[in-house]
Amino acid sequence: MNKQLIWRIAKYLGIGVLVAFIASILIGASVFFYYVSKAPELSESKLVATTSSKIYDSKNELIADLGAERRVNAQSNEVPIELVNAIVSIEDHRFFNHRGIDSIRIAGAFLRNLTSRGGLQGGSTLTQQLIKLTYFSTSSSDQTISRKAQEAWLAIQLERTATKQEILTYYINKVYMSNGNYGMQTAAQSYYGKDLKDLSIPQLALLAGMPQAPNQYDPYSHPEEATERRNLVLSEMQKQGYLTAEQYETAINTPITDGLQSLKGSNSYPPYLDNYLKEVIEQVETETGYNLLTTGMDVYTNVDQDVQKRLWDIYNTDEYVYYPDDELQAASTIVDVTNGKVIAQLGSRHQSSNVSFGLNQAVETNRDWGSTMKPITDYAPALEYGIYDSTAAIIKDAPYNYPGTDIPVYNWDKAYYGNITLQYAIQQSRNVPAVETLEKVGLDKAKTFLNGLGIDYPDMHYANAISSNTTESNKKYGASSEKMAAAYAAFANGGIYHKPMYINKIVFSDGSSKEYSDPGSRAMKETTAYMMTEMMKTVLAYGTGRGAYLPWLPQAGKTGTSNYTDDEIENYIKNTGYVAPDEMFVGYTRKYSMAVWTGYSNRLTPIVGDGFYVAAKVYRSMMTYLSEDNNPGDWTMPEGLYRSGEFVFKNGARSAWTAPAPQQAPTPESSSSTSESSTSQSSSTTPSTNNSANNNTNNQQPNTTPGQQNQNQNQNPQPAQP
Fold it and tell me: What pTM, to 2 d.p., does this model score?
């Protein structure tokens, strides 16, 4: 090939590349301008608008007007330079050097994503964040090229028409600051009783850091997280040269409570709705990407106000349930089993009326649900996968070690019943049969089954047969009253699981609307659900479960009790009687499922005596109210099953069974309230022998699987439950 030909080929290739390059630019530009042609109109009225979202109950009655209660806008000349420095330090280092979008920032964020390195900032500038707050959602489904193009275009346009000072002022007045406060000037007056210009550097740093997660960084309900966030802002300010070393040291050593005044309750809704509304806010953002506290919309929820108010009264009066003291806490969730709608939820007794959207224990997974895990982790999977074919199946309650270990599994009484029926094992909440059943099912199958009921673990261990403890604190793992109510609802609903739903319809600011519901998914066979229900009916005739019994109402449920480690008993509890950190009850009718947790906020304050009956009695009081005018009736046995005596068999199972040796409860009636204790230890503790229990009480023996012993050693133990 001669040089002339080579040159000619190279020339044509070069021309082709150049043409392709120019074409790509033209096409890209055309696409960009097509997208931005559909962008909303930039409007100052939108940037300064007071946002108000109206919330309605299940009967379409207005229950809250969020966003309209408190807003005091700051003028540009009222914004101190220290606040400006704090905001740009944590949100946008190059704010004063870009014109709406920052190519350096975008490239940096791209590289961090490629290298999986963490960073303080994403690719959006402060101007883009303001545009997003004003016009768009934060949903991942909305992070499209079209939306990003519109966001960038509006940010550029805003930078052309407004000064940096004006943009910052828009942002300062726009953001939500927790506890019903909109805008940083409002928060300054509410939290400190001062204007922005009168606040100290650490106070301003706190306010600057709150908008990314205002409820999480609330100094009243989450002082530790607020301190950490404030100190991060201060650190960035020092890096940017806005603080001297001396100023920085003084600021980070200032208590987060410095200057904070008591909040004055001024919510536009009754206090019994606070916990529920918090979950509404979270589900709206999950489903739509919009924060209803900063985006005006009408939200129709599933809360039954009458039921919610009755639950509040049950919690906060002695009219329905006797409580040992005012400090004993309760958290519960009630769902409609046919559709997953959460009709009521309350996370604590005697809630503070000053804090909005604080901790809601009803959705937290930091307490162990003990033996209430046995039906969904062990026995239902065993029936589902054909390991047992009847409620009369014989299982052995005998000395047994955790699979692959020499660590024994103990029952609460350190005794063994020998051969017993599956039904009796559930009623008496025996631990050995539960763990042995999980071994037969297999950890992987059990995890898959639990996933179908909305419950997950980062890793499953055999101790999870009798415990909801996890090696991670993330709320997506473990159990809560919300998760347990929804999971047990599948038993009541013929095996169909529905995700808990707080919202049913949203009308957006542009007039468009969308309805929300969960279609349901089959979590287990109808036969499995029915057999589990038949067995759990017997739980209400024994021990603490009797506290939930209503002779006229067909229902089923399971009790659960957590335990302390030996070290906790010896060093902290120092109580010679039977004690536990948590007591639970999960029960259901054909219409409603309810999960109740009881315990003290300080886990080392033990439940004693009659306190063990509170969870079941809260459930009974609520179910009495829900069913007194509408008894849902009993379940109908599905095809594929038959009954023989008090037991239910799958078709093809043996039609007769041989009665095992006499089964005698090992404790007198007076100690039946302790029958539901757990026997395993949390994933963060090592095996030990519990010598703290006395006669006629549950002699609990903490234990774990070896795989758990080496995980999370620095965490506070969360003992496993019955």
Answer: 0.75
Show Cβ contacts of residue 322 under 8 Å, excluding neighbours closer than 6 positions.
Answer: 610, 614, 617
Give the closest residue to 102 by CA, choosing from 159, 57, 46, 19.
159
pLDDT digits (tens, 9 = 90+) for 163-217: 999 999 999 998 989 887 889 999 999 999 999 999 999 999 999 999 999 989 9
The answer to whether the CB of 549 falls within 8 A of the CB of 560 is no
Asked if 648 contacts 674 with a C-beta cutoff of 8 angstroms, the reply is no
DSSP state at residue 569: I
Cα–Cα distance between 584 and 599 in angstroms, integer?
Answer: 9
Cβ–Cβ < 8 Å for 486, 371: no
Enumerate the β-bridge partners of residue 497.
521
Please state, in angstroms and rounded to a whole number, the distance separating the CA atoms of residues 178 and 176: 6
Neighbours of 181 (CB within 10 A): 27
Just list the catalytic residues. 91, 371
- Please give the Cα distance from 60 to 462 (Å, whole number): 47
d(CA 309, CA 313): 6
433-434-439 Cα angle (round to 5): 95
Task: Quickly count: other Cβ atoms within 10 Å of residue 200's Cβ.
Answer: 16
pLDDT, tens digit (0-9, with 9 covering 90-100), for 415-437: 999 999 999 999 999 999 999 99
In the chain, the N- to C-terminal Cα span, in Å, equals 85
